């Protein structure tokens, strides 16, 4: 069954009236990449899929249920979103930040249990942040904060993951580590949809990609078919050269 | 956070609150010993002592406690709502609306509960104005709400100055005392105390949800919080608490801003702990401040708002300095 399904969905982007309807579905175990130039609406699409914005038209289904029929809390148990921008209001420690991921699973009166704490610590361990659990998030570097945001959703443990440029701010080693984590999550049966700017990461780690063009058109399909120089040059307005390394396409600006 | 993490700080604060209330009741122009106060409270004591404690001092002390608690909890809620450490019902112009309405009532020769009633109406009117204007046709943002409130507060400030300028000289001391906070009119603290306890009970199951809201509305929404209804609830509850506090004691600034911060520096920022702690510590602070206001230059009384500022400002600056 499709974990995430878009039916004739048009994302509502302020000041724009164009936009092709999106109709695709992502199955359990699939990793999707969303590619497109700045301002094309990648973040707006992810926020629409998470129910944070109303679509202009069409519907989104999570686990077969249309979004409007799910309460916020039910949705939060099925779908998580890793934000691109930090959302921190008040100072909080790394461990506290990971632990809020348990919120949708706890009853109002319930305090976080030792098991919840263990889940948060395990999540921090998986993103290599366990040694900093008592640090204030505001004192961390951009890449470290990005990993804490991933840990929050790991603690939340939804079946569908939306990730807004998850490799932002990350050094090369941690970019690869996060991509391996994403593949591992897919291997456990989750569905992951992420926006990306790095073509080589998309080519290496995604199963399918969605290309969002500046003129509002979109196309989607398997990585092999979609990631070809002609389409990508059209996508970014930038000439590209492609080669192949260990069976994966590699792109360099031409 | 486990339940045991709540128990220790809250019981300490509760003990401090009880001690402050006893000291406050025992202090005054006719000195009573703590034993005599305890005797009266447990049903004994002479006729004079009973009148003094039960009809004069205790209502005023409990009024001070309720006011301080209400202001501190309202401040903490506003700060979570706006994700801004500077937010406080007074900054948002609520007290300005209340003060203008109260002064206008005094100017037209009204007294007693009519002044309090006007203050309450003024605070609620200001709330609706600020929220309505900040809401507008576009999206509602904390920055917009804060700016609207600040501008409204300046507007009320100008109107207050106007009333003071045209008021007859004999009315000025009463008005100034009201503006700086005056607990001598607090006769029946019952409803305010009930509201304080009621809000704390209502907020207990929402504590963790408020923690999530403090991380920003989008983050809260993806973690399962229905953000907009919660924001409305928090704003209305905080406004009601402020309006009630202003009705009892006039405008006592500073408590709503400083008590939540002080507690966050000491106890962290878990609303399940901070909100009840604010109720206790805010109440304690105002009871102590009122005791000082009555005692320092007896038989004269100082405005309690001056005393809260004198205690709070240095303490707050010291804690900020130490925590750098």
UniProtKB/TrEMBL annotation, chain A:
The keyword Translocase applies. GO terms for molecular function: ATP binding; ATP hydrolysis activity. It holds the Pfam family ABC_tran. Gene3D superfamilies: P-loop containing nucleotide triphosphate hydrolases. It comes from Marinobacter lutaoensis. InterPro entries: AAA+_ATPase, ABC_transporter-like_ATP-bd, ABC_transporter-like_CS, P-loop_NTPase. Residues 4-239 form the ABC transporter domain. Part of the ABC transporter complex HmuTUV involved in hemin import. Responsible for energy coupling to the transport system. The keyword RNA-binding does not apply. It comes from the Bacteria. Signal peptide: none annotated. Keywords: ATP-binding, Nucleotide-binding, Translocase, Transport. This is ABC transporter.
């Amino acid at each position: 069954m499709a974990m995430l399904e878009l039916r004739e969905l048009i994302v509502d982007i302020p000041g724009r009236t164009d936009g092709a309807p999106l109709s695709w579905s992502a199955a359990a175990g699939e990793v999707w990449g969303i590619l497109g130039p700045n301002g094309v609406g990648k973040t707006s699409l992810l926020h629409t899929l998470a129910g944070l914005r109303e679509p202009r038209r069409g519907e989104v289904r999570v686990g077969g249920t249309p979004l409007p029929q799910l309460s916020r809390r039910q949705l939060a148990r099925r779908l998580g979103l890793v934000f691109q921008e930090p959302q921190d209001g008040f100072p909080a420690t790394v461990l506290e930040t990971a632990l809020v991921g348990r919120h949708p699973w706890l009853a109002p009166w319930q305090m976080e249990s030792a098991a919840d704490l263990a889940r948060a610590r395990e999540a921090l361990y998986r993103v290599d942040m366990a040694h900093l659990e008592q640090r204030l998030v505001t004192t961390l570097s951009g890449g470290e904060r990005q990993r804490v945001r991933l840990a929050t959703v790991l603690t939340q443990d939804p079946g569908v993951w939306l990730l807004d440029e998850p490799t932002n701010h990350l050094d090369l080693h941690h970019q690869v580590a996060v991509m391996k984590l994403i593949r591992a999550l897919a291997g456990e049966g989750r569905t992951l949809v992420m926006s990306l700017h790095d073509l080589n990461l998309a080519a290496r780690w995604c199963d399918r990609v969605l290309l969002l063009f500046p003129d509002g058109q979109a196309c989607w399909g398997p990585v092999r078919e979609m990631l070809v120089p002609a389409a990508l040059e059209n996508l970014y307005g930038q000439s590209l050269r492609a080669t192949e390394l260990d069976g994966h396409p590699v792109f360099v600006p031409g | 956070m486990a339940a045991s993490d709540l128990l220790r700080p809250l019981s300490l604060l509760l003990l401090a609150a009880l001690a402050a209330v006893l000291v406050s009741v025992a202090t005054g122009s006719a000195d009573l010993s703590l034993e005599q106060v305890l005797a009266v409270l447990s049903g004994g004591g002479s006729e004079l002592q009973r009148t003094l404690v039960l009809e004069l001092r205790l209502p005023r002390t409990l009024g001070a406690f309720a006011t301080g608690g209400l202001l501190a909890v309202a401040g903490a809620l506003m700060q979570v709502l706006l994700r801004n450490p500077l937010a406080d019902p007074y900054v948002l112009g609520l007290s300005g609306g209340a003060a203008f309405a109260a002064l206008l009532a005094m100017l037209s020769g009204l007294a007693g509960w009519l002044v309090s009633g006007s203050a309450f109406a003024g605070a609620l009117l200001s709330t609706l104005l600020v929220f309505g204007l900040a809401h507008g046709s576009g999206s509602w943002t904390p920055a917009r709400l804060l700016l609207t409130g600040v501008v409204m507060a300046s507007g009320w400030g100008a109107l207050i100055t106007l009333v003071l300028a045209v008021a007859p000289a004999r009315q000025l001391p009463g008005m100034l005392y009201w503006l700086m906070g005056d607990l001598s009119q607090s006769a029946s603290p019952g409803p305010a105390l009930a509201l304080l306890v009621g809000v704390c009970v209502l907020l207990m199951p929402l504590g963790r949800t408020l923690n999530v809201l403090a991380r920003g509305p989008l983050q809260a929404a993806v973690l399962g919080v229905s953000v907009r209804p919660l924001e409305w609830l928090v704003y209305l509850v905080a406004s009601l608490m402020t309006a009630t506090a202003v009705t009892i004691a006039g405008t006592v600034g500073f408590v709503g801003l400083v008590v939540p911060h002080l507690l966050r520096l000491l106890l962290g920022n878990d609303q399940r702990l901070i909100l009840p702690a604010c109720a206790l510590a805010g109440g304690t602070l105002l009871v102590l401040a009122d005791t000082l206001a009555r005692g320092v230059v007896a038989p004269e009384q100082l405005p309690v708002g001056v005393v809260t500022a004198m205690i709070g400002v240095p303490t707050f600056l010291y804690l900020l300095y130490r925590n750098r």
